[in-house]
From TrEMBL:
InterPro entries: Diverse_substrate_MTase, Methyltransf_11, SAM-dependent_MTases_sf. This is SAM-dependent methyltransferase. Keywords: Methyltransferase, Transferase. SUPFAM superfamilies: S-adenosyl-L-methionine-dependent methyltransferases (SSF53335). It holds the Pfam family Methyltransf_11. It comes from the Bacteria. GO terms for biological process: methylation. Belongs to the methyltransferase superfamily. The keyword Methyltransferase applies. It comes from Anaerobacillus alkaliphilus.
Amino acid sequence: MEDKNIKNKVKSVFGKNAEEYVSSESHAKGDDLPLLIEWLQPKSTWVVLDVATGGGHVAKTLAPHVSTVFSTDLTEEMLANTAKHLKTQFQNIFYVIADAESLPFLEGTFDVVTCRIAPHHFPSPASFIKEVSRVLKPSGRFVLIDNVAPENPRFDVFMNTVEKLRDESHVRCQTTEEWRELFTQNNLEVIQELARKKTFKFPTWVARTTESQEQRDQVEQYILAANEEIKNYFSIIVENNCVQSHQIDEWMVLCEKR
């Protein structure tokens, strides 16, 4: 029941903000998108699955280089909005309403599975990775890009609390070690990875998913109350007692199914 409530909250939050995820700079213009092409070296015969496609930025990046992209999302309004933006440009993207933890595809269907800036909304990362491995062909590739929690437990709690205060559909950012364990359990071998810092402009970032000024103030006050060690780790910039920006950890990883 709890998982169902979380997924309903995801659909509510993203349904109301569908257009913003198409235009969001951090989603649309990340330098990880060109890296997808560099890392994957896509082939024109490939069939690709993009899980939790959001604004469709991964699907849009890969579609010119592959045979077919199945672009899936749990939120119908999000998917319909993305299709509206992309269907005039690309004839090889198909849009499917799908739960990342119960994918409606047969075993061994895809050459590549991708998922970008979404798994922190999934109630069961273990179920998601199990499904990824199931629908991949042998030697198929999986690219995960997501915000990750630091290994330091206090930093982990801070990061996930900030995210939850800002976005009620947030579940948890995993650590890289937690992801590695799930990969190992599901025969996915890490072959390339990149850790980086990602900067958010606080006013834009906090406004995207909050529903009131009171909620925005709550997020800001929580950040302002952090100790210096936390403020330094997350590079929190404060001017006139207002948060201007902060950084989080992001991880991009390429796996191969063994």
